[in-house]
Amino acid sequence: MSAQLLLVDDEPGIREAVKDYLQESGFSVQVASNAREGWDLMQQNTPDLVISDVMMPQVDGYQFLKQLREDPRFQSLPVVFLTAKGMTSDRIQGYQAGVDAYLPKPFDPDELVAIVENLLIRRNSKTKSTTEEGETPDIAELANQIAQIKALLTQRNAISQTPAPFKIDLTPREQSVLNLVAEGLMNKEIARRLETSVRNVEKYVSRLFSKTGTNSRTELVRFALEHGLAK
């Protein structure tokens, strides 16, 4: 599956030209004409990387980046700035704000593709290494799942319950962890509530995935709500 990119630029000509080139290079691209439109798109579908112009009306690139970095879901999301500004002070401002790469216009589209590919490779290898080492999963992905769980909970009364398709025996501690996951709590909060370590909570969550045949916290909560497992 190709990487999902979000391109935010208020100049239609540049927006379409860059979109076409990125799509020809194998990426899936959503476009927005301003930062607010880009933010709205991100609420529906989290991209793998954001490419944004800096000089935009109302909300500029720096403000947009600040908004992204203040949201746990997007703190580690790679961001590339495209801008007519090429002054060293402007680049420093971008890096201090948390941008990953800074490409002054006019630029070679092949250079943009190389930057995007490099950032995606780095992000994927980082996510893979933390998962293999058994550490806490990517905070942005976890926060995204928590947001989805909370959205599910608002529809809790509308979810019809049916018996589980197979027998599920949960230990008292697994049941306690499941109940707290279904409240939308993160591992650190669950560990504090149950007076145990975060690593132990991760082990219980993994066992719950295995026993219910689910692969994410969102799937787990949906399964629990549909089959009356969460109390």
Automatic annotation (TrEMBL):
Signal peptide region: none
Matches recorded under CDD domains: LuxR_C_like, REC_Ycf29
Chain ranges of the Response regulatory domain: 4-120
Database matches in SMART domains: HTH_LUXR, REC
Highest taxon of source: Bacteria
Classification via Pfam families: GerE, Response_reg
Keywords: DNA-binding, Phosphoprotein, Transcription, Transcription regulation
Annotated ranges, domain HTH luxR-type: 163-228
UniProt-listed Gene3D superfamilies: 3.40.50.2300, Winged helix-like DNA-binding domain superfamily/Winged helix DNA-binding domain
4-aspartylphosphate carried by residues: 53
Keyword Cell division appears in the UniProt entry: no
Matching PANTHER family: REGULATOR OF RPOS (PTHR48111), TRANSCRIPTIONAL REGULATORY PROTEIN TCTD (PTHR48111:SF67)
Protein name as it appears in the record: Response regulator transcription factor
